[in-house]
Design a protein that fits this description.
Largest sheet: 9 strands, mixed
Distance between the termini: 26 Å
Radius of gyration: 16 Å
Strand order of the largest sheet: 3-2-1-4-5-6-10-8-11
Structural class: alpha/beta
Strand content: 15-25%
């Protein structure tokens, strides 16, 4: 299996790349780590990935497709990091959408995107809130992915923490809401484990998996999706 991870040095992806590369989530995987700065190349190699230099914010669909050639799956784990609404839309929406089209163009069927638990039309983030561009951009990207013929999975983790992995999650039911102030945290290390497992569990195809820390093991939770 060959997996292209876009945004390979993001906080979740830094945990996902070695997890895939060393076979901790199953058979060892060839991992291509896409980064946008030359000085990041060695860091990807240190994680066990094969680095590829590509600025996805400015790369065309055709350029991305060339980078994806021969892959079995693409994982979008990139993001603008907030702060600049224009750049948020450029990366989290526009570049993400181009990457989906590029995967289809390159003949890569499997596509997984790391989104967030509130990526629904009624997310409730007001337009004058600084978080709105992110919520709006992610929803647009997620909706575009749903409209494709790819074997897609959208991951919607709750509030991310840097705590140790638990290996257990709770998947929210369709239509279930998360009340403001209610516990919804999940360690980034668990998000990486969910992403790695989802790539190998067919029950996640065509699903928006919203989850928090819970009591069910990650593989079992993903196999019980409805």
């Amino acid at each position: 299996m060959k997996v292209v991870v876009i945004g390979a040095l993001g906080k979740v992806a830094q945990l996902l790349v070695p997890l895939l590369a060393d076979g901790g989530s199953g058979p060892a995987t060839d991992v291509v780590g896409v980064v946008r700065k030359e000085e990041q190349i060695d860091r990807v190699a240190d994680l066990g990935g094969d680095p590829v230099l590509l600025d996805v914010e400015n790369a065309s669909t055709e350029e991305m497709a060339r980078a994806f050639a021969g892959a079995d799956a693409v994982v979008w784990a990139a993001g603008a990091g907030g702060g600049n609404p224009d750049r948020t839309y450029a990366v989290d929406r526009d570049a993400a959408i181009r990457s989906m089209d590029a995967a289809a163009q390159a003949g890569v069927r499997r596509y997984l995107i790391v989104s967030w638990i509130g990526s629904v039309p009624d997310h409730g983030v007001p337009e004058d809130n600084s978080f709105f561009p992110y919520a709006d951009a992610k929803l647009a990207a997620d909706d575009h992915l749903r409209s494709t013929d790819l074997d897609w999975t959208i991951l919607g983790p709750g509030s991310l923490t840097d705590g140790p992995p638990t290996g257990k999650i709770r998947v929210l039911a369709d239509g279930e809401t998360v009340e403001r102030g209610a516990p919804s945290e999940v360690p980034r290390a668990d998000v990486a484990q969910v992403a790695a497992a989802a790539l190998r569990i067919d029950e996640t195809i065509g699903k928006f998996v919203r989850f928090t820390t819970g009591d069910e093991t990650i593989p079992a939770a993903l196999r019980h999706l409805r």
